[in-house]
Amino acid sequence: MEPFRTLAALGHEQLVLCSDPTCGYRGIIAVHSTALGPAVGGTRWWHYPSDEAAIVDALRLSRGMSFKNALAELPLGGGKSVILGGPEAVDRAAILRAHGRFVDRLGGSYITAEDVGTSPADMEFIAETTRFVAGLAGVSGDPSPHTARGVLRAMEAAARHRWGSSDLRGRRVAVQGLGNVGMNLAKLLAAAGARLVVSDIDRAKVERAVRELDATEAEPERIHAVEAEIYAPCALGAVLNDDTIPELRAQLIVGGANNQLSEPRHGRELAARGVTYVPDYVANAGGVSYGGSIEVLALKPEEALARVDRIFETTIMVLDRAAQEKIPPSDAADRIAIDRIARASR
Q: What is the pLDDT of residue 11?
């Protein structure tokens, strides 16, 4: 990996490698852009196969946050941080406090929040060593329900674009991953009258969805290939790749996971197969739209929810532009985001 060439290619401003041997903390903070405002993005705590894999993930996720905020028309840039390791850390609180100290050294150019592997309770430990943290309990709180709400709005918009109606009653939806976002989305879909197929590596979560939401179970490694009209990836990224795309049977792909495309070319391959793909950073912007509206823009909760619901209109805009310019929706969304960031930079 050539760090400076990679930063230049993706347009990043800063990459910080962090270490505190006294508590076993190793972290990475990636700031993609502050053109629109301070970079915001959660802290992911995860086991990575290598340090390079962790760096690549932080870079991709932070760029996605810049694009997400630009499409959501928030006065915020994009960043992301990762803590290397797993939740079995000897002193979780000490590691989080150490992470907060490194966030604090950036002086507000980066504001963190929860992500995969962290929670609002973890943010309380980070808040002990920096004020540049969001998603605290009692303020905007857990972003997952708002992320799920935004994914539902994107799904309704894609349905209208594809089938002429946003009504999801009777539509068969395959939900991959029943974490905080996936389970909330499954509940919303069940309430909307959709028929659910679900998967997760956690059997208890699958059994709960089958029992409470009348869902059908699918094997985690085959959920992408089940017969469904809509596929909703809500686990980890890179699920749309050379192996899975030829096996897809869905007409729409709208989910809450980040970085669903393994490579940019896969967006073009989906379009070539006639699959309507809503870019992940368009669909899953509900959490940051709500939290950013509450904690940065100081809006009232009802005003923040209205911004989440605007994901419907944003999705229609992206899909319409893709159709007009005869390009994949992933390319259309990228162009809109890059243009907004470039104009702010100028």
A: 84
Catalytic residue among 68, 80, 187, 300: 80
The structural domain count of the chain equals: 2
**Is 80 a known active-site residue?**
yes
Would 135 be classed as within a structural domain? no
Summarised one tens digit per residue, pLDDT across range 144-192 is 999 999 999 999 999 999 999 999 999 999 999 999 999 999 999 999 9
Considering the domain boundaries, does residue 298 fall inside one?
no
pLDDT in tens, 103-125: 999 999 999 998 888 988 999 99
Containing domain of residue 91, as a range?
3-63+78-126
Q: How many other C-beta atoms are found inside a 10 Å radius of the C-beta of residue 271?
A: 18
Stretches in the chain below the pLDDT threshold 50: none
Positive or negative, the Cα torsion across 171, 175, 178, 184? Answer: negative
Same domain, 221 and 169: yes
d(CA 138, CA 272): 46
Name residue, tokens 């909307």. Answer: 192
Q: Write out the two tokens for 19.
A: 């270490």
Rounded Cα–Cα distance for residues 255 and 279 (Å) = 9
Residue 239 is assigned to a structural domain of this protein? yes
> Looking at the DSSP assignment, which residues form a beta bridge with residue 43?
81, 114
Q: What is the pLDDT of residue 312?
A: 98
Residue 17, domain member (yes or no):
yes
CATH of the domain at 215: 3.40.50.720
Q: Are residues 86 and 162 in the same domain?
A: no
pLDDT, residue 140, reads 74
- Checking 194-201 for CB contacts under 8 A at 24+ apart, the result is 194/168, 194/169, 194/170, 194/230, 195/170, 195/171, 196/172, 197/172, 197/173, 197/223, 197/226, 197/228, 198/174, 198/223, 199/174, 199/175, 199/223, 200/235
- Return the biggest CA–CA distance within the chain: 59
Structural contact between residues 43 and 114, judged by C-beta atoms closer than 8 angstroms: yes
- For residues 117 and 153, membership in a common domain is answered with no
Among 165, 164, 230, which residue's Cα sits nearest to residue 197?
230
What is the C-alpha separation between 280 and 266, in angstroms, rounded? 13
